[in-house]
TrEMBL record, chain A:
E.C. code: 7.1.1.9
Encoding gene per record: ctaD
Gene3D superfamilies: Cytochrome c oxidase-like, subunit I domain
GO cellular component: plasma membrane
Keywords recorded for this protein, A-Z: Cell membrane, Copper, Electron transport, Heme, Iron, Membrane, Metal-binding, Oxidoreductase, Respiratory chain, Translocase, Transmembrane, Transmembrane helix, Transport
Stretches that traverse the bilayer: 21-44, 64-94, 106-126, 146-175, 187-214, 234-258, 270-291, 303-321, 342-366, 378-399, 411-433, 453-477
SUPFAM superfamilies: Cytochrome c oxidase subunit I-like
Organism encoding this protein: Roseiconus nitratireducens
PROSITE patterns referenced in this protein's UniProt entry, alphabetically: COX1 (PS50855), COX1_CUB (PS00077)
Topology in the lipid bilayer: Multi-pass membrane protein
Region (Disordered): 502-538
Occurrences of domain Cytochrome oxidase subunit I profile (ranges): 13-515
Protein's UniProt name: Cytochrome c oxidase subunit 1
Subcellular location: Cell membrane; Membrane
InterPro entries for this protein: Cyt_c_oxase-like_su1_dom, Cyt_c_oxase-like_su1_sf, Cyt_C_Oxase_1, Cyt_c_Oxase_su1_BS, Cyt_c_oxidase_su1_bac
UniProtKB/TrEMBL annotation, chain B:
Residue span, Cytochrome c domain: 215-310
Protein name in UniProt: cytochrome-c oxidase
Organismal lineage: Bacteria, Pseudomonadati, Planctomycetota, Planctomycetia, Pirellulales
GO molecular function: copper ion binding; cytochrome-c oxidase activity; heme binding; oxidoreductase activity
Gene: coxB
Subcellular locations according to the entry: Membrane
NCBIfam families: CoxB
Length: 538, 377
């Protein structure tokens, strides 16, 4: 008897308050949204193979990149790790029966789906063409598309973020198992905690901002449009005050996953645990002070530009600390390159490169040239797709045996990690060059000399697309045909491995206690085999 | 383009060279660190592969551990601060207003660039400029936000509605370069493109003089006359209801609340559209708003006129007797910003000597062979 089979009616799923089942609901809905956003990308990457606008009209192209951004940011990346892995793992990792507010948790999913429904309605109705950034006065006065519907969808889903964040914060404060002190928490818990703080503090600003756009658009009250007395830069300040911290909502949980996977497959304690934990909080707090680096050429004052550039440089320090500590964890470890580890190492490489190009962008004079070009697109995809999505997939593979009780095909897992890594680089590296050459983003047509890089990018995207379809196949296959997983197939150390796979409804049969630091990996005996699953009982 | 291989677009301005040098340093840091991390990972994987028999004893002392952590915080921090400083210096330099620039007006709208030269010549989606002279654009949008981007010059500036943005550069290489709109502005965003044509001085002088009937300043004066502005602002004794318009542009003025501001284009624009917001000391807020009665191009013409009389004194001459030199191609506006102005690191008359980068002499020595050093003076 486990959480999956204790009851199988539809009702038992849709009215469940079990954090593990809610995680599964999120997993399915996010996968759906990921493919919606991905299809949009397929279409505009096809269009961009040629310099002319031949496949799509300008308006369709504009709607597709807007749709891609809106769906991917708010309906995939921001909720991804927190709502799927966070929901599933936080109670297990802290040794609790559930989150602090199980019903609120279910409500969060319904709110999220309501927001998603608005977004889907918007798409069916005809789409929106403002880009995911909704810059005013274009969005508030000039766009003739479904801005209000799109904004409403995001506005609603924001409440889901806030409720989820609140639930995690309270749970981590009050539900930790006996002996589980703050500095015995796995880094994943630290990162979800920091992420939740950002969700609770920043999301309301986004809600206010979108509401103001709606007020201006519907009632004609001058807020952002100068022709009726508003200020267009005010929108950018408000929007990025949320949306820059939102980048850390996307990346911090990914860092948490990596901090679990790397020690496990190095059979060694995480190097610099305390520094990694504190770097997490440092990133979350500094992240609130750097929004103006999106506005170096917007017309904000030169002095503001200087200050925001300096502060943005500082964020790189805690990020570097993490990368160095992960790498140092490998030193004198006992390294196994299983699928989750391949994804994790891919994350480190891509995140490092994405972060370094972020330093380039924080450098004022450099940003002036590449701002709003493909350089930016490449940079944030290295962080959000190269980083976040690799971490998400790595985490999904790492905890798949715990979530489903099954072992997937290791060979296919490794293939998918390599295909995703290769396809990703081929898609987005050429875009750095495009950006330096001066190809602006959001261009439906472009000068001929840029074509070769666009063709490379579109080819890479095809490979990347295959890389994403692979896990869907072999993970689903494993549900039926995979070997059964033991309680702790990786011989990992967290509390989540001290219960059955899949866990019972209330997680633990008896209250677990903790008596030592996390990641208590010892150098293993030479015959250690991990991740093989149990032989089928015959 | 002549280089064997380059990731950079053609460089055709002074700023482009500074940008390229900075970029190479940044790319160096990117390559160094990403290669370093990747190599370390690969070496560790190979060396500490699970089936290999190697020494895995690792018990760093607490002091050692802290030393390592502090080192890899402070090391990157030093590099980051260095990069920040370098980027900031180039950025500040790019914001320092040039002396004696060619003043060009740019009005952006969905989906075109409307450009007006001092001689009165106008063009759409093309910008002609002379080599070696600083060109300053005063830009405004009629609708949404656009962004003026010339990759060959490595410059970009958002063009906002309801506010002037300025941008300047000095071209160093004749040719035709892309002009892009870089801020998403609706359906035809990717069609809001054009060309920047950098010409030799003579060629430019010939081009700029063609097909113009009145200079921008003259057009501005005509607007003032037709809107009846001079009835109050003419500076005629007895009729001085409003502040005189001569000797105004670029000078400091005192407002009724005691604040002192520079009468720059943005101030002048606001004073015409929202006269009651900033009233000059000693005057009554009697002027009606011209918001909606004057289009952005006319307003920029008026500013061009005010610039042409920035150093004049006394009452304005009557209509039609305007005499400005702004039609002659290389001519400069006589404006020198007053030494006490407070706009960002301002070059003042005296500073120019110490800032060779901004002085026309320096431009001459740097730019490709130029035959008309005199013309630029």
């Amino acid at each position: 008897m486990n959480y999956l089979n204790e009851s199988t009616t539809l009702r038992s799923w849709f009215l469940t308050t079990d954090h593990k089942r809610i995680a599964i609901l999120y997993l399915l809905s996010l996968t759906f949204f990921f493919f919606v956003g991905g299809m949009a990308a397929v279409l505009f990457r096809l269009e961009l193979i040629t310099p002319e606008g031949d496949l799509l009209s300008a308006d369709s192209y504009n709607k597709l990149f807007s749709l891609h951004g809106i769906v991917m940011v708010w309906f995939f990346l921001i909720p991804s790790i927190p709502t799927v892995l966070g929901n599933f793992l936080i109670p297990l990792m802290i040794g609790a029966r559930d989150l602090a507010f199980p019903r609120l948790n279910l409500l969060s999913w319904y709110i999220f789906m309501a927001g998603g429904l608005f977004t889907l309605t918007m798409i069916v109705a005809g789409g929106v063409d403002t880009g995911w950034t909704f810059y005013t006065p274009y969005s508030s006065t000039y766009a003739n598309t479904f801005v209000i519907l799109a904004a409403t969808g995001i506005f609603i889903s924001g409440f889901s973020s806030i409720a989820t964040g609140l639930n995690f914060i309270v749970s981590i404060h009050v539900l930790r198992a006996p002996g589980l002190t703050w500095f015995r928490l796995p880094i994943f818990v630290w990162t979800i905690y920091a992420t939740s703080l950002i969700m609770v503090l920043a999301t309301p600003v986004l809600a206010v901002t979108l509401a103001l756009v709606a007020v201006e658009r519907i009632l004609g009250v001058g807020i952002f449009d100068p022709s009726i007395g508003g200020d267009p830069l005010l929108f950018q300040h408000l929007f990025w005050f949320y949306s820059h911290p939102a980048v850390y909502i996307m990346i911090l949980p990914g860092m948490g996953v990596i901090s679990e996977v790397v020690p496990c497959f190095s059979r060694k304690r995480l190097y610099g645990y305390g520094f990694v934990a504190m770097a997490t909080l440092a990133i979350a707090s500094l992240g609130f002070l750097v929004w103006g680096h999106h506005m170096f050429v917007s017309g904000q004052s030169m002095y503001a530009g200087l200050l925001f550039s300096l502060l943005s440089m500082l964020v790189a320090v805690p990020s570097a600390v993490k990368v160095f500590n992960w790498t140092a964890t490998l030193y004198k470890g006992t390294i196994f390159l299983k699928t989750p580890m391949l994804y994790a190492l891919g994350f480190i490489g891509l995140f490092t490169f994405g972060g370094l190009t972020g330093i380039c962008l924080a450098t004022l004079a450099f940003d002036v040239h590449v701002h709003d070009t493909y350089f930016i697109i490449a940079h944030f995809h290295y962080i959000m797709v190269g980083g976040m999505l690799m971490a998400y997939l790595g985490g999904l593979h790492f905890w798949w045996p715990k979530i489903t009780g099954r072992i997937y095909s290791e060979w296919w897992g490794r293939v998918s990690a390599l295909v995703v890594f290769g396809g990703f680089n081929m898609t987005f590296f050429p875009q750095f060059i495009l950006g330096i050459l001066g190809n602006p983003r959001r261009y439906h047509t472009y000068p001929d000399e840029f074509q070769v890089f666009h063709v490379m990018s579109s080819l890479g995207a095809t490979i990347l697309g295959i890389g994403y379809l692979l896990p869907c196949c072999y993970l689903l296959w494993s549900l039926k045909f995979g070997r059964r997983a033991s309680n702790d197939p990786w011989h990992a150390t967290g509390l989540e491995w001290r219960t059955t796979s899949p866990p019972p409804k209330h997680n633990f049969l008896s209250q677990p206690t903790v008596s030592g630091p996390p990641y208590a990996y010892e150098s293993p005996h030479p015959e250690l085999v991990i991740g093989e699953g149990e032989p089928e009982p015959h | 383009m002549n280089e064997s291989f380059s990731f950079f677009p053609e460089s055709a301005s002074e700023g482009a060279l500074q940008f390229d040098r900075l970029s190479l340093a940044l790319f160096g840091v990117c390559v160094l660190f990403s290669l370093g991390i990747s190599l370390a990972i690969l070496v560790f994987i190979a060396r500490y592969w699970h089936s290999r028999e190697v020494d895995r004893q690792f018990q760093p002392s607490r002091g050692m551990h802290w030393l390592v952590e502090i080192t890899w915080m402070l090391g990157p921090l030093a590099i980051l601060l260095g990069l920040f400083a370098w980027g900031a210096v180039v950025y500040i330099r790019a914001h320092r207003p040039p002396t004696d620039p060619v003043e060009v007006n740019v009005v952006a709208k969905q989906w075109m660039w409307k450009i007006a030269h001092p001689s009165g010549r106008r063009e759409i989606n093309t910008l002609h400029l002379p080599i070696g002279r600083p060109v300053r654009l005063t830009m405004i949008s009629e609708d949404v936000i656009h962004s003026f981007f010339v990759p060959a010059f490595r410059v970009k500036q958002d063009v906002l509605p309801g506010r002037y943005s300025t941008l300047w550069f000095r071209a160093t290489k004749p040719g035709r370069y892309h002009l892009f709109c870089a801020e998403y502005c609706g359906t035809e965003h990717s069609q809001m493109i054009g060309q920047v044509v950098v010409q030799q001085r003579e060629e430019y002088a010939e081009w700029i003089a063609q097909g113009t009937e009145e200079s921008l300043a003259q057009a501005g004066r005509r607007n003032l006359d037709s809107m009846g502005c001079l009835q109050c602002h003419g500076g005629i004794p007895g009729g001085q209801v409003g502040p005189p318009l001569t000797g105004l542009y670029g000078h400091r003025v005192t407002l009724s609340d005691g604040a002192r501001v520079v009468a720059d284009p943005e101030y002048l624009r606001r004073s015409i559209l929202e006269p009651a917001a900033e009233v000059r000391e000693g005057f009554e807020p009697k002027m009606p708003s011209y918001d909606g009665q004057i289009d952005p191009e006319q307003l920029l013409e008026i500013i061009a006129y005010l610039r042409s009389v920035a150093d004049a004194t006394g009452p304005l001459a009557g209509p039609g007797t305007l005499d400005t030199d702004s039609r002659s191609p290389g001519a400069s506006s006589p404006v020198q910003q007053s030494p006490d102005e407070s706009s960002p690191p301002g070059p003042t008359g005296e500073d120019d000597v110490e800032q060779p980068l901004d002085s026309p002499e320096a431009a001459e020595s740097r730019s490709p062979p130029s035959t008309d050093a005199e013309e630029s003076r």
